[in-house]
Amino acid sequence: MGKLLNEFKEFAVKGNAVDMAVGVIIGAAFGKIVSSIVNDIIMPPIGWLIGGVNFAELKVTLPPMEIPGVEKMASATINYGNFIQNLLDFIIIAFCVFLLVKAINKLARKKKEPAESAPAPVPTEEENLLTEIRDLLKNK
């Protein structure tokens, strides 16, 4: 049991597990922010533009099923307005993640470029003489 506990402690303290946990927590909070932006800022003006429609209330009500000898069942609804809001949430989150990954990749390329674009080393006098000798031997 002690070995298992030590292995778990080692796993939990490793940078990858902690980084992943922080990412999940921040991602959940970011999702709430985006949902609020979509529900509270983007969708109301769109609904207003199309005649005061509240997307959260858009739905199709299915007719109630009547089965003899059973209590009347409530009508089921297909809430497509809620689906539209969730779809917008997803598109905005995906776009933000795309921009974030693009920015990280750009920074990673900038870090690599200085090392790759370093000026070519200037040959020493010895190297120049050896190059001249090589060229003369090729011409003979």
Question: What key attributes describe this structure?
Answer:
140 residues, two-stranded antiparallel ribbon, elongated
Quaternary organization: single chain
The overall average pLDDT, rounded, is 82
Distance between the termini: 80 Å
**β-strand amount:** under 5%
- What characterizes the major β-sheet? 2 strands, antiparallel
Which structural class best describes the helix and strand composition?
mainly alpha
Radius of gyration: 32 Å
Number of strands: 2
Characterize the overall form. Answer: elongated
Q: Helical content, roughly?
A: over 70%
Low-confidence runs (pLDDT<50, min 5 residues)?
none
> Number of helix segments?
4
Major β-sheet strand ordering? 1-2
**Run of helices and strands:** HHEEHH
Can you offer a commentary on this structure?
71% of the residues lie in helices and 3% in strands. The mean pLDDT is 82. The protein has a two-stranded antiparallel sheet with strand order 1-2. The chain has helices at 2-13, 15-49, 80-116, 125-139; strands spanning 60-61, 77-78. By secondary structure, it is an all-alpha fold. The radius of gyration is 32 Å and the shape is elongated.
Task: Lay out the secondary structure.
Blueprint: H1 2-13, H2 15-49, E1 60-61, E2 77-78, H3 80-116, H4 125-139
Antiparallel strand pairs: 1-2
Helix pairs in contact: 2-3
Short summary:
The chain has 140 residues and is mostly helical. It has helices spanning 2-13, 15-49, 80-116, 125-139; strands spanning 60-61, 77-78.
